[in-house]
Amino acid sequence: MSTGGSRRPAERAQAPAPDSAPAEEGAGRPCAGESGEAGGRREAAARAGERAAAPAGREAARRRAERRAERIAAGATELEHRLADLLRGGLADMERSAGEAGRGVWEETAARMVDAQAPGLAARVRELGAVPGSGPGWPSRMLEECALLHLLGQGFMNIAGLPEPLAATVRSRMGMTTRAAEVLADRDAVVRDHWLVLGRHDTEEERIAARRVWLYGRRTGRTALVLSFAAGGLPEPPLPVGGSVDADLAYYPGAPALRAALGERHAEPGPGSRPPGTGVHDALASYGAALCGDPWLEGWPAVLAGVVPVPAGDGWQLADEGGSALPVAEAAGVRSRMWRLAAVSGGEPVTVFGECGHRGFVPYTVWPGPGSAPEAVSAAEPAAAVPLTSPDVPGGAR
């Protein structure tokens, strides 16, 4: 789903490596009155200095990476002890200590993970603190989250023995990010396509705005998630949901490949088309396959073709023509999206894009009409995408 997503401020100019001395003004140029031979020696010396500084900069970066890995490993070890103490004492008393006091303990633990330079661990620890007393079945959810945290910590501490795609996923989940410029610098990995904009979702947490944009390649058939983050809002204009853009894109390391960096755009965004979809069974199979590469996935992008929104108790389901139904997640704001989706459907089959996860399906965009699952997308088919999330929806439904 990275993703993904494409949210992108301009890259800052990279500062010189701290271990590298700044070049003298005029280095590499003969001075006035200087002979050609002396100027040549000066220029050769400057180039030699540059060649010597490059390995020194790489060595300094390697040492910094090693020091950070050691701190993260220490933080993961501390978290393992915390989880062991929790499970040794049992979960019976956790509901009584739920609330501000109980969350305070986990906030302290999360702060220690931040100190260990493992922001990914810190985020999961904070989520763990909100589970006790959160409703029926919370002990099972608590054990599941503890198991995932344990798996992540063990994965990092034994990362040398992991296949590289899985090792890259573990580093990413720990919060060890790769700059977009580094990903796009590998020209062999850059993919150019006409990317359909499947959906977009903007959120804000702790004064940091985040934008998730999902794309689908007309030629390659690949899905990508482009993520953007900014303090104080996202200034760049978003790609229009339902539209299409001819652009370069490169995937970040990890398995499965989903999050990507958006590179050069070769034209302004134009009209798109209806994306190909699948039934409920195939969407669940794709999500299951993705979990094999990344057990910490919260959701996997899916386009459901020919589904009808159906009320089910206090919630909703999306039923396909084969008789299978996928429950809609009971997440904040999803209920209002479903009423809008039902209004577009009018009881008839529609095409829906969203994320398939362990809590159910989260919808983001709907196209009137049933759609199909062709091998390629027809550029002639008009796109009548209806976004279900703000800012496209009047009233800002999320």
Q: Major β-sheet, in short?
A: 6 strands, antiparallel
Low-confidence segments, given as residue ranges, are: 1-34, 373-380, 392-398
Mean pLDDT: 81
State the helicity in percent bands: 25-40%
Count of individual beta strands = 12
Order of helix and strand elements from N to C terminus: HHHHHHEEEEEEHEEEHEEE
Strand content: 15-25%
Task: Give an overview in words.
- 36% of the residues lie in helices and 23% in strands.
- The chain is flat.
- The protein has helices at residues 36-89, 100-115, 119-129, 138-157, 164-174, 180-185, 280-293, 334-345; strands at 191-205, 208-217, 223-231, 243-251, 260-265, 270-271, 300-312, 315-320, 325-327, 350-357, 360-368, 386-387.
